[in-house]
Write a structure and sequence with these properties.
Two copies of one chain form a homodimer.
Chain A (H helix, E strand, L loop, with lengths): L1 E5 L6 E6 L6 H5 L6 E7 H14 L4 E7 L8 H13 L7 E6 L1 H13 L5 E6 L2 H7 L4 E6 L2 E8 L4 E5 L8 H18 L1 H9 L1 H5 L3 H21 L14 H11 L6 H18 L5 H13 L12 H9 L11 E6 L2 E5 L4 H9 L1 H5 L3
Parallel strand pairs in A: 2-9, 3-4, 3-5, 5-6, 6-9
Antiparallel strand pairs in A: 1-2, 7-8, 10-11
Chain lengths: 364, 364
């Protein structure tokens, strides 16, 4: 088992990565202080893994809620449902909420843990690659609003994260690729060696080779843990993790949640960020092409939705959480392995990127 | 103007108490860092004071939402509405949410500030006595769930609190009394001198005599600020502030929000807590009577709802946030001026108190 520590003083916690963790009761129970547990999971994941987790938690009182699958259920109505179940089953402040599922389950379960009775303990057991390499680490929790993604949320760190790589065997290929988008992102923004490594291990990763997948999960968690430990609540450097996300969120909002997977929207966002970084003289056309090619190799979309205009993009980007009074704030690429936050994006150059969707779709 | 400081290190803030603060633009603007403000208020308060506040905030971009009056609107649906307006008016992370109203407005506006884009700045301008002496201070924010009061919330401290005592002139007498319930509570749990003082200044307070009302607001804020500064997130001593509230919340939930005012339910809760403290040998029958008499003098209810059984009380008290795995946790009175948290309430004695409702209603 590999262990990455997220150092946040008294809120520090361990991210445990390995095979068979889901059945490792003693390990998981070690981070539960009360005698009641409430598992938030999805219908699909429940069928595959809930019984095993319940067995591992033997000795504790375990209640569970199965949410319908899909980003469209990551909303306040679901929060209300979860709280209703918690109250009906008499869970008090000493309870522990466990997220067993992907990013949607983790985000809404985490927000429930952040707000139920003003905050209870929380454990993440992510079951998609995307949540394993990104959303389960760092304490961001949220639900969506009709008018914008993740607009209602809180920072609430888990007590521990358990990443069982075996569960990836049941993950649909499209979701595996979506997770790899965040791994590419981590390489681009912080680690050129990871980016280089990804370029030559595409097949191993798509085939779920165990050492390869363990390596990228661990490296992603290390990169994210390092940044979050410096800036937990995104006052500064943590914003770098949003590389590709301002474009990506605009796509998700415009297309309706769930039609584009989050990782797919981020992948296209990375291509757009690379294009804009190239047009503003930060990276070479060659590097922009390298990024686009890697995204494509992992079977991820490189072109924005054909029915989405530059104006629609710009409007949605203006209400993004990263927007300031001064204008759109974006993360751009200085070089592969180094990103930078830019506040004074020239709208005219941004528009060129947004209008160049068609060109990005051409074969390289 | 009187100023009480709540000392929470870098989250410290001032509670300003005086006449005419609502029109004091420079004072209020001093604690707003961006150029956009979003006022959450109620229909009634908006008619009386919103225009004046907007004038005081001249120079800033001010949007406002008027919520229907009543505790029944303190829910997730209202949060969703507020966030919708914030997004429609392009408020970003640099915005400041201002609560202009009573406890309901403060709680829901505060929860919106705690969760909008994972947290924005917040200012409290409480317009009821109850919110001035209690809920505007200390950073507790929440909305209700169908199955329990304040079950979804967060700790989110304001940047400042502005208490304009002039606004009490438009407050209905019933709400004035409800506010005085929390003042009595502060006397009972922390300050016997305040309790003594209240006994001989009933008329001045009910007639809104300015020095008298300023005195009890300031003293209440000092008592609360002192306790919150020691224990911001209610791991220990802050729970003392819940004196009367476990009983009170049960009444509110059973009777439907809004039928009993929060302060009225707390007032009856104080009488029940005094009764139980007497029955468990903590205070004398004389002190229990003194408490009941003071509650009565301020025109507050001393007897629980006649249609509420002891069993209904006990069931609702078990899901209270203060409940632990071990059982019902209650705040009891050691002597007037000193309270204590008790975990091992004997259910048989509690039942005697809960069944003695009728007796409590008899004239003293």
């Amino acid at each position: 088992m590999e262990v990455v520590t997220l150092d946040l003083g008294k809120n520090s916690y361990s991210i445990n990565i390995g095979s068979g963790l889901l059945d490792n009761g003693p390990l998981i129970r070690n981070t539960i202080s009360g005698n009641k547990v409430f598992v938030v999971t999805s219908e699909t994941v429940a069928c595959l893994y809930l019984e095993r987790l319940e067995q591992a938690l033997g000795g504790l009182e375990v209640d569970a809620i199965r949410l319908p699958d899909g980003e469209q259920f990551k909303n306040l109505e679901t929060l209300e449902r979860i709280v209703g179940e918690l109250l009906a089953n008499k869970h008090n402040r000493g309870t522990t909420i466990v997220a067993l599922g992907g990013g949607v389950v983790g985000d809404v379960a985490g927000f429930a843990a952040a707000t139920y009775q003003r905050g209870v303990d929380f454990i993440q057991i992510p079951t998609t690659l995307l949540s394993q390499v990104d959303s389960s680490v760092g304490g961001k929790t949220a639900v969506n609003h009709r008018l914008g993604k993740n607009m209602i949320g809180a920072f609430h760190q888990p007590n521990a994260v358990y990443i069982d790589i075996d569960v990836l065997k049941t993950l649909p290929p499209r979701e595996l690729s979506a997770g790899l988008a965040e791994v590419i992102k981590h390489g681009i923004l912080a680690d050129v060696e990871l980016f280089d490594w990804l370029e030559i291990h595409v097949d191993e990763l798509l085939n779920l080779d165990e050492p390869a997948i363990t390596h990228v999960i661990k490296r992603s968690c290390e990169i994210k843990a390092n940044i979050v430990s410096i800036d937990e609540t995104e006052r500064g450097v943590r914003a770098l993790l949003n590389l590709g996300h301002t474009f990506g969120h605009a796509i998700e909002t415009n297309q309706g949640y769930g039609n584009w997977l989050h990782g797919e929207a981020v992948a296209t966002g990375l291509v757009l960020a690379a294009d804009l970084s190239m047009r503003t003289g930060r990276i070479s056309p060659d590097d922009a092409r390298r990024i686009r090619r890697l995204v494509e190799k992992f079977k991820l979309p490189v072109c924005p939705p054909p029915d989405m205009s530059a104006t629609q993009f710009a409007e949605l980007m203006k209400v993004d959480k990263k927007a300031t009074d001064a204008g759109i704030r974006l993360v751009l690429i200085e070089s592969i392995g180094r990103a930078v936050i830019v506040d004074d994006i020239e709208m005219s150059i941004l528009e060129v990127t947004l209008e160049s969707g068609d060109r990005l779709c051409e074969p390289i």
